[in-house]
Every structure is written in C-alpha cells, then in structure tokens.
Amino acid sequence: MAGWGPFDLTGKSAIVTGGAMGIGFGIVRLLTEAGANVLIGDVDERGLGAIREKLIGPGKVATMRADVTQADTGDRLVDRCVEAFGGLDILVNNAGIFPIVPMLQTSPELFDRVYAVNLKGLAFVTKAAAARMVAQGHGGKIVNIASIDALRPSMVGLAAYDASKGGVLMLTKNLALEFAPHGIQVNAIAPGGVTTEGTVKLMAGMGFTPEQQEQMTKASVARIPLGRMGIPDDIAKVALFLASSGSDYMTGDIVVVDGGMLLT
User: Fold this and answer.
1) Which of 157, 166, 48, 47 lies closest to 118 in space, CA to CA?
2) What is the DSSP letter of 154?
C-alpha cells in the first residue's frame, strides 16, 4: 500500500450504501483497493451476492441487505460494521433513486418515496454513523453523493429528485457545523452525467430504444466540455479523496465532478 500515500485507508472501516452497482460499486472497489474494510448495504440482494468476486483489493468486504427508508437501517448498518470490522471510520451515503416524472404527473406517494430514499434515509443513516464516531472519539469522514441538480436543474421530470439533492447539499453543510467539534468531516460530491447500469435500465424501462438512448447520450455529451459522459471511477476517485487524510482540512464542501457541464 506504499503507493497510496495520504489516500491509504489501511485499517479503516467504511459503510457504503447503494454499493452493489454503479457509482456505489465504483466507490467500494476503490476504497477496498486503498485498504479499507467495507460494509456494503443495498436493497439488491442478487447484486450483493455476486459482489465479492468482482473485488481484488486487500480490504475485506461484508454485505447486508439495507433499505435506507426503514427507521432502524442506520443502526443495523453500524452494528454490522462494528461486528465485522471493529469500528466505523467512513460513511458514504450513495443510495438514491431518480425517477423521471414531470411534476404535473407526480403523485404524493412518488414524491415521498424520493425524499425517503434520497434525503431522509441519508439523514438517519448519517445520524447512526455519527453517533458511533462520536462514541469512538477519533473523528470520521462522511461523504454524501448529491448531484449537479442540487445546483441547477438538468432536465424536466426531476423536480422531486432535484429538491431532494438540494436538501442533501444543505444537510451536508449543517451537519458539518454540528459534527466538526467531534472531528467528523462531512462533505458532498455533485456528479454530473454518469453512465451506469441503473441509468441504462431506467431508460429502457421508460421505453427508449437503444437508438434513442444513444441519441440522448450524444445530446448530453454535446453539453460537456470534456467531451464524454462520466464513469463510476470518476466519482470514486473523489470519494476516496474525501474519505482519506487528503481532505483533512475540508468540511461542509461540495465537489462538482461533471466534466464541466455546469459551465455550459
């Protein structure tokens, strides 16, 4: 692990929610490569069952089915992490949903579901993790996955999602103030367009043909100065930085990782 320098996470223990695929899996992969032991929480039991064979890092991995909308999920994740690895140093709140539905067609139930996963679930998993970090007495790192939609709407149909991710940004800042005296840093990442299994399935589920999906991707890329869509590893590298000693003098910040999209 000598090559990891300030990003070496050997001996650290982490929880990553929504870690079975996409951005979450990219984060798990990089954290374990940097030496961290990681508990992956996800609602996708099939994805959890196949995850170990995809990882090659020295860090250990444990899995747990976890629905962040359930009130006791945060406590259960923390207890499982402590049981498996002896403590908790890092939390990455990645679990999230992004149904594309115009507001005029959005039901109260759908709106509540988006908030329950993206904001309330994140808040109370964070509460449980921070309580453990405070009790341990040696600080910790909390990384929230927000979105560039927390800063500017990207398209029609994401009103509930955008509002929830705006809430993640403000929650990050407020909790950074509250937890700073305990040595706990809270930061957020705002990804732009990232191609994952989830985005492909979402487009297919909405009835878009592969040709239409390709056209939509080309339209998105045309708005990105760096000329490509993001990949999970682009976000994972920043998550590793925020989870490591490299970010020791940062808290309450949001790091935009969008290939320059917000510039346009």
Assistant:
1) 166
2) -
Distance between alpha carbon 91 and the CA centroid of its chain, in Å? 9
For residue 121, the one-letter residue type is: G
Give the per-residue SS3 of 26-92: HHHHHHHHCCCEEEEEECCHHHHHCCHHHCCCCCCEEEEECCCCCCCHHHHHHHHHHHHHCCCCEEE
* Rg, C-alpha atoms of the chain: 18
Q: How many CB atoms lie within 10 A of CB 231?
A: 13
How far apart are the C-alpha atoms of 81 and 95, rounded to whole Å? Answer: 17
Q: How many CB atoms lie within 10 A of CB 22?
A: 21
Give per-residue pLDDT as tens, 98-128. Answer: 999 999 999 999 999 999 999 999 999 999 9
pLDDT in tens, 158-188: 999 999 999 999 999 999 999 999 999 999 9
**Domain architecture of the chain: domains with CATH:** 7-194+229-244 (3.40.50.720)
Secondary structure of 201-227 as H, E, C letters: HHHHHCCCCHHHHHHHHHHHHCCCCCC
Q: How many CB atoms lie within 10 A of CB 207?
A: 7
Q: Residues with catalytic annotation?
A: 161
- What separation in angstroms does the CA of 127 have from each of 43, 71, 75, 181, 205? 20, 11, 9, 15, 34
Instruction: Read off the pTM.
Output: 0.94
The secondary element (H helix, E strand) that includes residue 230 is: none
b/e string for 101-115 if b means 16 or more Cβ within 10 A? beeeeeeeeebeebb
